[in-house]
Amino acid sequence: MTNRLKKLILLGGDLAILHLALFLTIVMRYRQDQLNLYWQNHWPSFLVIFIIWLLIIYINNLYNLNWRIRSRQFLSATVNTVIASSLFSIIYFYLNVQ
Fold this sequence. Notes:
Low-confidence stretches: none
Helix content: over 70%
Structural class: mainly alpha
Mean pLDDT: 92
Shape: globular
Largest sheet: none
Oligomer: single chain
Distance between the termini: 45 Å
Radius of gyration: 16 Å
Number of helices: 3
């Protein structure tokens, strides 16, 4: 399997997990008979967030297959990615009041 295919699998897995997390949050928070309505209301905003998160992950080189997971460089990049993604999300939802 080529590195490009492995990176695409990682990207697809990240995207699937992000969508699953949104779905589970909606399921736990809202009534079951209106899930489709709430999904349609929340998905566009979160899609923007998901795309930005994936770009931040890519920019911080977390799709690099040569990094050792327990290295300080990897952990530092992961923490920086989480902080940057969180700050962006807070700012986005603060400015994008509906």
